[in-house]
Amino acid sequence: MGTCLCKEKREERRVRQREQQEQRRGERGSRTSDRRQRDQRHRQWRNALSTDSDIEQQAYDDPVSIEMDIKDLIRQTLKVIRTLVNNEQEPPQSLLKLNLIADKERGWLMVVKALIETVPDNDSLGPAVITLFLDECPLPSKETIHRLLFSMEFSGDLAKKKSPGWHKNACIVLGSLAEKLAGSTAVAMFSHDVQQYLIACVVNNAHIGGSYQMILFALLALEKFAQTSENQHMICRTFEQIGQPLLELETWLEDKSLESNWLAQQVGFCAQWSLDNIFVSENRQFAYESADVSGINAMLNHEDVSEYLKIGPDGLEARCDVSSFESVRCTFEAVEGVWYYEATVLTPGVMQIGLATKRSRFLNHEGYGIGDDDCSVAYDGCRQLVWYNANSTKHEHPPWKQGDVVGVLLNIPEKYVRFSLNGIPLYQKHKEFLFQLPEGDGVFAAASFMSFQQCRFNFGAMPFRFPPKNIEFRYFLIFVSLYFCQRDV
C-alpha cells in the first residue's frame, strides 16, 4: 500500500475525524489529569483558531507558542508515519490535530510554513508527507494563497539564502498548490517574484557541485505550474531568453563523473522528461527518437501503466511526482522457469517492487498498487515490508538507501519468490503468491511508486550487480523480443 495517508477518500476521513472528536469530548470526564491537560490544550487550539481575526487574543497570546506546538506535531507525525501501513490503522493523533488546526485560514498558513521549516531534507518520507497533507486539507482561498506567498517573500535573491532543505520544502509546497489549483489560481500564484525564485533555484545551481536538491524540486514545481497553459508559455519564453538551462542538465545523464550521484541523475531524468513533454525546445531531437533500444528486449510497458508515471526513453526507468500511487508492469510475461531481474533505487522512499499478473489492478488514486491484491507480491525497502494481498510482513533487511539494488528471483517450478538487497536474500522465501496462481497465468515484473520516487530496472540489458548464487536462471533480454511499437516509449 502506498501509504495510509492516501488510502481513504477525503470525506470518509473527515467523517471519521468528526466522530473521533465527538468521542474524545464524551470521554473527557474519565481521563487522567495528564490527558485532561492535553485535551485542554487541544481545546485551546480549536478556540484559538475559531476565527481569524482574534487568534492572538485567544488561548495563546504569543503566536510563537502555537508555532512550536505545530512543529512538534509535525515531528511526531514524521516519526510514526512509516509505521502506518494499512487502511485499518487510525491516523496518528498528531496528524489529526494538524488537520484540525489547518481547517482555519490562520492555522493553515501556520502549518504550511511550519512544514517548510521543520521537515528535514534527509527524511525519506518528508516530501510525501508535505504533498499528502496539502492534498487532504480543504482548498485554500486565493486570499490565503496570496497571504502565504507575500509572507514567504519569494524573489530571485531568496534562492541565494536559506538552506537547501528549506528551498526543497518550499518548492514542494508551491508545486503541490499549483497542481491542486490549476487554472486561474495557479496563474495568479505564478507571479513575477515566484517565477524568478524558481528559475533562480534552477539556474544558480545548474553546475556540477551546485545544490542538486534545489534544482530538482524547483524544476518539479515549474512543471506543476506549467499544467496551466498560460504559465507554460511564460516559462518557455523565459527559458528561451536565458538559453534553455535544461539542455545542460540533461547532459548529466551521460556524465560519467555523476554516474553514482543519484540526485544529479534524478535532475537529468526530470530535465529530459520536461524537455520531451512540457518545455519543448526547438531543434532538439526527442529523447525517445535518439535512445538506442535495439538491444533491449524487455522494458516497462507504456501501454500497461497508470496515467501519471514518468517512463524514461529506454523504457528502463520510472519516476512518480504526484501524490497518487503509480504502477507499471513490464512487457514480458513469464509462464515457466526461473527468472531474475534487478532494480536500482534512486530514491529511498516508498516503492513496492516485485511481480504481478495481468489480473492485478492499478488503483492509483486509492493508494493500491503491486502487492495490494492476491495477484501481486512486492518488496518495500523503505518500511522494511513484503506485501501480498494488501497484507505486510516485516523483513530483516535494513531500510534501503539511494543506489541500493533490489533483486527479484521468480522460481515458478518450485513456486516461490525471493527478494534480495545488494545480494543478500531475505531469509524467508515467499510462497503464497505462486501457490494460488491460476493455471496458465503469467507473471510480469512490476512496481508501484509514491511521490518523488524513482527506480532504474535491469532486465538483463546490463550485467547484473548481484546475480543469485547456486541456481540457474533466465533473464528477459535473451529469451524474449519486442515489437517495434513496444520500443517506442
UniProtKB/TrEMBL annotation:
Residue spans making up a coiled coil are none
Q: Which InterPro entries match?
A: B30.2/SPRY (IPR001870), B30.2/SPRY_sf (IPR043136), ConA-like_dom_sf (IPR013320), RNF123/RKP/RSPRY1 (IPR045129), SPRY_dom (IPR003877)
GO annotations under biological process? Answer: proteolysis involved in protein catabolic process
Q: Which residues form the B30.2/SPRY domain?
A: 278-464
Q: Where is the composition biased (Basic and acidic residues)?
A: 1-37
For region Disordered, the annotated ranges are: 1-56
Alphabetical GO CC annotations of the entry are: cytoplasm
Give the source's domain of life in one word. Eukaryota
Give the molecular function GO annotations: ubiquitin-protein transferase activity; zinc ion binding
Keywords noted in UniProt:
Metal-binding, Zinc, Zinc-finger
Write down the Pfam families for this protein, in alphabetical order.
Answer: SPRY
What protein is this chain from?
B30.2/SPRY domain-containing protein
> Organism source for this protein?
Diploscapter pachys
Identify the taxonomic lineage of the organism of origin: Eukaryota, Metazoa, Ecdysozoa, Nematoda, Chromadorea
